[in-house]
Design a protein that fits this description.
Blueprint lengths: L12 E8 L2 E9 L4 E6 L20 E6 L18 H14 L5 E6 L1 H12 L4 E7 L6 H8 L9 H9 L9 H9 L4 H19 L14 H16 L8 H5 L8 E6 L7 H10 L3 E6 L9 H22 L1
Parallel strand pairs: 3-4, 3-5, 5-6, 6-7, 7-8
Antiparallel strand pairs: 1-2, 2-4
Length: 322
């Protein structure tokens, strides 16, 4: 029987945590204050957390921690590129952990959240009980090329890609990715808003195989779109500020930590091959291929897989602790 999300619950604590550099992180907790600490890392970069992310986890078993990464969502200021790199985000996670007086936690996330989770684990393996990662993204040049050149996902969605590159048609730039970054960080606010909606529309159209005919009017939150597009393009033109191939090279640091990897067979944002490469290099990770899922975090099989993985990890962590 397929699992559905746990019932909608409210947060029992919400706050803004100062982490330096002028940044304040939106931070919330829900579920059982005495449960297994779990942190969920949202996608993007720049995507922001959702109340539905709480619903992957049994609220009786888990102390559920969500936050908006610096510069986006409800964090302040947003959107902001100031002092915004993976190292800053890793330090922010450590600031959250210490603030909440947690010694170890289950680290989970989706899409870009998997990248950040892996980077955090490599930097602080002693703080990680286990991982649940959905839609692997390793931050390599081939992955950017797949998304933003005509030789990748554009081959499956040529009409949508033509719409996507129209935003950059009138500017001189080395690549579509660079063109978007220039528009999104330029002085023309109207052009930046239009570019942010086009950026999010392209990714949204690639993200799901359960929903069709996604049009510009479906991008309803202009602030969220601007955060997502501006921060993502900034990260991607800078190769996510990580060396090519770094995660696979450094995976030795977390090889003893168990992980469940969920990946949609038809994920057109993050290709399956990178999840496969990851588990080949990480003997304690188990790859679960979702045969009728794409990239979206709330497709039917993805919800089923994530909720079951969270229950499996709750049992594993409880048994290991007893």
């Amino acid at each position: 029987m397929s699992r559905v999300l746990f019932p909608n619950i409210g947060a029992y604590q919400q706050e803004w945590l100062g982490v330096g550099d002028g940044h304040q992180l939106y931070l919330e907790q829900s579920g059982n204050p005495n449960g297994i600490p779990v942190i969920y890392l949202h996608g993007g970069p720049g995507g922001g957390s959702s109340k539905n992310h709480r619903r992957y986890f049994d609220p009786e078993k888990y102390r559920i921690i969500l936050f908006d990464q610096r510069g986006c969502g409800r964090s302040k200021p947003s959107p902001s590129l100031h002092q915004n790199t993976p190292n800053h985000l890793i330090n922010d996670m450590e600031a959250i952990r210490k603030h909440l007086k947690i010694s170890q936690w289950l680290v989970t996330g989706g899409s870009w959240g998997t990248t950040l989770a892996l980077l955090y684990g490599i930097a602080h393996p002693e703080r990680v009980l286990a991982f649940i990662l959905r839609g692997i993204f390793l931050g390599t040049a081939a992955e950017y090329d797949w998304l933003y050149t005509q030789d990748g996902a554009a081959g499956f969605f040529p009409e949508y890609y033509r719409e996507f590159i129209e935003q950059c048609a009138d500017i001189q730039c080395a690549s579509t990715l660079q063109g978007y970054y220039d528009l999104l960080t330029g002085d023309n606010e109207i052009a930046a808003i239009a570019a942010s909606k086009a950026w999010c529309l392209w990714e949204l159209r690639l993200s799901t195989i359960e929903h069709h005919n996604i049009e510009p009017h479906h991008i309803t939150d202009a602030h969220q779109a601007l955060c997502m597009a501006k921060i993502s393009s900034y990260y991607f033109v800078n190769n996510c500020f990580i060396d090519e191939g770094f995660i696979l090279t450094a995976i030795e640091k977390i090889k003893a930590i168990p992980g469940i990897i969920l990946h949609g067979r038809y994920d057109m944002v993050c290709q399956m091959r990178y999840a496969d490469k990851l588990v080949k290099a990480w003997p304690n990770a188990q790859l679960q291929i979702l045969p009728k899922a794409g990239h979206g975090g709330f497709e039917t099989q993805t919800i089923d897989g994530f909720c079951k993985a969270a229950d499996t990890m709750a049992s594993f962590i409880a048994e290991r602790g007893s």
